[in-house]
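Lab notes, practical 5.
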Amino acid sequence: MNVNQASVYFLDDESQVLGALRRALRLRLKGWTMVFESSPSRTLDLMSHSTPWVVVVDKKMPEIDGAEFLNEIKTLYPDAVRVILSGDISHETVVESAGIAHLLLSKPFELDEIVAVIERAVCLRTFQLDDELRAGIGNIDNLPILPANYDALVTYLNSVDEPDYVCVAELISHDIAVLSKILQLANSAFFGAAVPAYSAHDAVVRLGHDLVRKLVLCFELYTAKGDLDLHNQLLKSSERIAEGCVKLATASQLSREDTERAYFTGLLHNIGELVLAGQNSNISSDLAGSFLLKLWGFDQRIVDAVRHQSSPGKNQETDPVIYQLNLVKTLVKGDSSLMEMDVFLESLDPNLLKNAQLSDYVGSFS
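Output from the prediction step:
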């Protein structure tokens, strides 16, 4: 088996879909081994000669259901990223696919969307892990599928050059719980606005499209159906950590861009706990969370911060945001109030303060 060759398998009973993909992707994914098949049995036979990295399957086929086929792939090649294509993105399809597929894409699809997904889907290979650990991540059950409202928002934003604030506001208004959280942030001290934001439109204008897009994903994940008590607990923890991350980012005079990144890193720091909830797994929640964020195309610095939050020194680069996240978690874990942060910082090792870019801030106390 050629385990080092990047390979993607497409299984679809529609020859015109396979033909269109073959013509388009040959130029876009140079260096990849690409297989386009309509027969499930032949696809499995070919995989025995070239191990799949990514498997993209149509949901409804005459011989076998796409989810059933991916279930077999999960057993045979657990470290392959599994993608379902479906013209029916109903609640039932999402629920059925959630335990099997890593990603769910609607048909018809945009070529750029397929390419982006495939390029992100090699994320399991980019993590320096042994085979057993990589397979363990691939076997995680009930991995969250991108929320429908978020998917609709991204589809709209990618379809226009100049997004309309009214359209974006309408899209985020579909989930009242998410909208209330976005309005809460828009009116927080973080943005220092003198005039309150009362509507979805006001929030979008104040926060901007990109920030709103990320917030919709974050809050939809934590308010999704499931163990509501656990989701509420994780959301409250993530919001508290995010608040602390903003305080440290501000104290260390990070840029507005890095302060926003610090906020999202804090907000997403425990997403791995949501992924692993109810599962008997040896996978760390930090690793599971970073895998999901990498799969969904988040900024690599956020992915690295989530992965190394418990041991920031293992990251290849000294990113103050990772150290600050680690410090806030230590403070909160000790059941201390964020109001006691200055006292906590004064007790830390100078080298740790330096890595967190907080030496000048703490020095200003004396």
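Observations recorded by the TA: Strands lie at 7-11, 33-37, 54-58, 81-86, 103-106. The chain has three domains: 7-138, 146-225, 235-366.
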